[in-house]
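stuck on this one:
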Amino acid sequence: MNKIESRHRLIRSIISERRIHTQQELQEALEANGVLVTQSTLSRDVKSLNLVKINEGDSSYYAMNTIGGARRDIPDHLRKEIIDTLDDLEVKMQPMTHFLTTDKTVAMRTQGVGVLTREDAIRIGAVGPHARASGVDIDVRRDAPYTSYEDFDFNIPVVDSGDVFARVLVRVLETYESMKIVRQAVDMLPEGPINLGNKIPKVPAGEFVGCHEAPRGQLVYKVVTNGGPTNHRLSIHVPTFKNAPTVETMLKGNTVADAGLIVASIDPCFSCMDC
């Protein structure tokens, strides 16, 4: 193990043991363990490890993904904060939803614009909200449940018109369904261990394919492992790969002024296509 790998392992260990609020605090914790590092090097480490800042009340702290469960439990006060935030968001969403569905200017600019028929959506292979806005009733969370989606009661919004308005409407309706799922998840949190501890099984050599419903649609990972601690090969097939080819069909018969609106309506992630 080289110096960088050793330092990264130590950073993970420190963050898992206690809450670190600033880079300076992390730097001091490393020094206490005999590791001297500059702020610029530490900034690169934070980026390389994909550390994120979690806001809680008036403070924030570093966090990272934990394999085999969660790093920390969710205390009761945080559960209440989550529900209160959802309540506030739902109130704020209502006037926006009303405006979207009743405003004549919105209707003129979006209804009948950039239509993708159900037949074309299926033929080209559209996924996610883009497909559901064209009447294609698909969603991996329901059709092939993973994690605990089978435990939740939620609807899959489907609209038949296939235009820009439909694609926006589906996403708005899915916001309400997402809030419903989060409420159920908070209410159904089980008691007991929050992770596997040191009992994480060794990953065997082989090929594995995983699929889940991302905000833009079906996201597929193919992992090839050699039985070691790192992946031999990783291939990511993002939703925009499937949704982008529909743009040519949707642009036909529309004005140049509508082009930007039509492209934006599929919520493309062009940088994702570099994967």
